[in-house]
Specification:
Strand order of the largest sheet: 4-3-5
CATH class of one domain: Mainly Alpha
CATH architecture of one domain: Orthogonal Bundle
InterPro entries: DUF742 (IPR007995)
Radius of gyration: 26 Å
CATH topology of one domain: Arc Repressor Mutant, subunit A
Number of strands: 5
Largest sheet: 3 strands, antiparallel
Order of helices and strands: EEHEHEHHEH
Pfam family, one: DUF742
Protein name: DUF742 domain-containing protein
Length: about 140
């Protein structure tokens, strides 16, 4: 009985080169598009929005809304953070803050701080647990 012969493996094809810097999905990012989305920044005033600020829509998108504003209003039927909106719309956070500022000025959305749970439990709860364990 003869042992089975090993077959040589062909060399693996070279890995594809990474996309050039600034490319997204094989296409180049367009900075002009971001300017059009954000609009001209006349006074430079922006709402105090951070990544965890929750945005809630009050109304349906008006016919005069840009596509990005309409998409943002549709997404915000339930509260979403500014970071989630940035990810869902594939826009940088700076462009999202400009859109949110415009919608806040038009009173189409409301921005609110996230609901944060207390980091430390209530002392009375801890004492009740401790007394319950001592009675066991």
């Amino acid at each position: 009985m003869t042992p089975p012969r090993r077959q040589r493996r062909s060399p693996a094809p070279p890995p594809e080169p990474p996309p050039p810097a600034g490319a997204e999905g094989g296409r180049q990012k367009n900075p002009e598009r971001l300017y059009v989305v954000a609009g001209a920044d006349e006074d430079g005033a922006r709402a105090a929005v951070d990544l965890v600020t929750l945005i809630v829509a009050h109304a349906e998108p008006p016919p005069s809304a840009s596509p990005e504003q309409a998409a943002l209003l549709r997404l915000c039927s339930a509260p979403l953070s500014a970071a989630e909106l940035s990810a869902y719309l594939s826009l940088p956070f700076s462009a999202i803050t400009v859109l949110i500022t415009e919608l806040l000025a038009a009173e189409l959305v409301q921005a609110r701080a996230p609901i944060v749970r207390r980091a430390v439990p209530d002392r009375s709860l801890l004492e009740a647990v401790m007394h319950g364990l001592q009675r066991l």
